[in-house]
Amino acid sequence: MSDEELDGIFAGEQADIMAGGHTHRSLYRWYRGSVIVNPGSVGLPYTYDWQTRQIYNPALAEYALLTREKGTLQVDLRRVSYDLQDLQKAVKASGMPHTDWWLNDWRPEK
């Protein structure tokens, strides 16, 4: 997104750090003197596969560590892979309805 597009979203809000989520995609960028951070998704990340032109859920958790020390901000976006078979077993044992449908979009992290 351009700064002009973000102007419409933030409508004049100002802060040193703007953190949010909901998009399930990691983001770290500067915007008009502010840092925008989105850690991604711990439980439901998604990836677009350009070859198959499909969206899928990789078996990984995304999160961010923000540290401010002596006026310096450090943003560390992290991704941790996990075993897809462990996820499948846990979901099937959970009693959650429609597990086959839900698990259909999950893939091992590449």
CATH top level assignment? Alpha Beta
Helix content: 10-25%
Rg estimate, integer Å: 17 Å
Helix-strand pattern, N to C? HEEEEEEEHHE
Total domains = 1
How does CATH name the architecture?
Answer: 4-Layer Sandwich
**How many DSSP-defined strands?**
8
Structural class: alpha/beta
Q: Tell me the distance between the termini.
A: 26 Å
Name the CATH superfamily assignment: Metallo-dependent phosphatases
Largest sheet at a glance? 3 strands, mixed
Unreliable runs? none
Our count of helices gives 3
Mean pLDDT: 92
Proportion in β-strands: 35-45%
- CATH topology name, in short, is Purple Acid Phosphatase, chain A, domain 2
Question: What is the topological layout?
Answer:
Elements: H1 3-10, E1 17-19, E2 26-31, E3 34-39, E4 47-49, E5 54-58, E6 60-69, E7 72-81, H2 84-93, H3 99-103, E8 106-107
Parallel strand pairs: 1-3, 5-8
Antiparallel strand pairs: 2-3, 4-5, 6-7
Organism: Thermosporothrix sp. COM3
Protein name: Calcineurin-like phosphoesterase domain-containing protein
InterPro entries: Metallo-depent_PP-like
Overview of the structural elements:
By secondary structure, this protein is an alpha/beta fold. The chain has a single domain, classed as Purple Acid Phosphatase, chain A, domain 2, CATH 3.60.21. The protein contains three helices and eight strands, in the order H-E-E-E-E-E-E-E-H-H-E. The protein has helices at residues 3-10, 84-93, 99-103, and strands at residues 17-19, 26-31, 34-39, 47-49, 54-58, 60-69, 72-81, 106-107. Strands 1-3-2 form a three-stranded mixed beta sheet, with no helix packed on it. Strands 4-5-8 form a three-stranded mixed beta sheet, with no helix packed on it. A two-stranded antiparallel ribbon has the order 6-7. Strand 6 (60-69) and strand 7 (72-81) form a beta hairpin. The two termini are 26 Å apart. The mean pLDDT is 92. This is Calcineurin-like phosphoesterase domain-containing protein.
